[in-house]
Specification:
single chain, 92 residues, mainly alpha, 66% helix, globular
Amino acid sequence: MYHDIDLPSWIVRFGELTEQIARQFSRKDLKTQASNYLHGLMETMERKNSWQLAEAMGAASPHGFQRLLGRAHWDADAVKNDLRTYVVNHFG
């Protein structure tokens, strides 16, 4: 299914995307968790809950993702707008 992906290019593009949304997170650990969470969402597993995403990303527990989604302060609309801008600029 994903055999035609240019992996080096994908890694660069994903880095650009996460840099664009990183400005919405005030702390480095939250930026990292947001990047890891987004990466986990793109995994091919059938179900995607915090435990499965954490396992796929090599974390010992889902606590970092749960904190990001439930207790951390960030503007979901601003992240959504940044993602939309990135998609429009790169995919039309």
